[in-house]
Amino acid sequence: MTQSDPKVFISYSWSSADHKERIRAWGKRLLADGIDIVLDCYDLQEGHDKFAFMEKMVTDKSVSHVLVFCDKHYAEKADSRKSGVGAESQIISSEIYNRVEQSKFIPIICESSDSGGPHLPAFLKSAVYIDFTSPELVNRNWERLIRLLFGKPSRVKPSLGKPPAYIKDNSEQHSISAEFKFPSLKQAILEQKPNVSFYRSDFLDACFEYADSLRVREEPKTESLGEKIITDFGKLRHIRNLLVDWVLLEASSGKNGEFQDELVPFLERLRELKSVPTGVELWNPELYAGHTVFVYEMFL
């Protein structure tokens, strides 16, 4: 979500004159970068109710972000609910916990603790913060802050693409079935079992079903016809190799008569794969070019 006209409310503690001056300087720098600010030294006038002012700024929908500049004094006042910071933090924490998106509130660390950790009020302890604890870190992290306020991160998540074709393709199931049936057929042939024809029939049916499952029955999503044909033939080649192994095995088994009786009808059956499936409206016969090559190779 982009923020074309960001406007920020600056929440801070009057810890010292130097700190107040740093806040003003950062406010001016934000203005120079095209970000409108609400800062007490500019916007809180004599006679204004400061608590009403703070509540309005925190909850105002025109304020895109609240920058919470945290130092030791701010964290202590916020946690003890003392003075203006205490009242302001109550309003902010209430908004964070109850109504407003947490991304609206950005903690900025201005001072580290003795242990090196950040000074953060309890209601912001788990929040991801920006480090402004030194002039070097201010310059290093300034662009990060500006990008965050404008909704223009340096790393943009790529657009969601389409699932790969193999996710939607169920042909692998048929392929695995044919692979499993071939070893059983091979063992039956080598052992000269009397019911070899049943194993053979199961294997050939699985091969045909796999090849048939690749015939186009719905208009393909791919924009490249050539790519579609090459992909299909690559899958058919796997079954072709299984069938070649079968032919070589049967030819060397010594029962050529029975083998030939099965081979010829199967090759005739394969011719069906070159045509459009029954009930499918023909829009481009070239979609079956991969099957045509497959059938020619099997005859050869």
| Percentage beta strand | 5-15%
Structural class designation: alpha/beta
Shape: rod-shaped
Uncertain segments: none
Sketch the topology as an H/E string, one letter per element.
EHEHHEHHEEHHHHHHH
User: End-to-end span in angstroms?
Assistant: 61 Å
Count up the domains.
2
Q: What integer value in Å does the Rg equal? A: 37 Å
Strand segment tally = 5
Task: State the major sheet.
Answer: 5 strands, parallel
Looking at CATH, which topology of the largest domain would you report? Rossmann fold
User: Helix tally?
Assistant: 12
In helices, the fraction of residues equals 55-70%
Instruction: Label the CATH architecture of the largest domain.
Output: 3-Layer(aba) Sandwich
Tell me the strand order in the biggest sheet: 2-1-3-4-5
The overall pLDDT average reads 80
Q: Which homologous superfamily in CATH is the superfamily of the largest domain? A: Toll/interleukin-1 receptor homology (TIR) domain
The CATH class of the largest domain is identified as Alpha Beta
What's a concise summary of this model?
With 300 residues, the chain is of the alpha/beta class. 55% of the residues lie in helices and 7% in strands.
Annotation keywords:
300 residues, alpha/beta, Rossmann fold, 2 domains, 12 helices, 7% strand, rod-shaped
Give an overview of the whole structure.
The mean pLDDT is 80. The protein has two domains: 7-150, Rossmann fold; 165-299. The chain has helices at 17-32, 40-43, 50-59, 72-80, 83-98, 135-150, 165-168, 171-190, 196-213, 225-251, 256-270, 289-299; strands spanning 7-11, 36-38, 65-70, 105-109, 130-131. The protein has a five-stranded parallel beta sheet with strand order 2-1-3-4-5, with helices on both faces. The two termini are 61 Å apart. The chain is rod-shaped. The protein is α/β, with parallel strands linked by helices and 300 residues long. It is 55% helix and 7% strand.
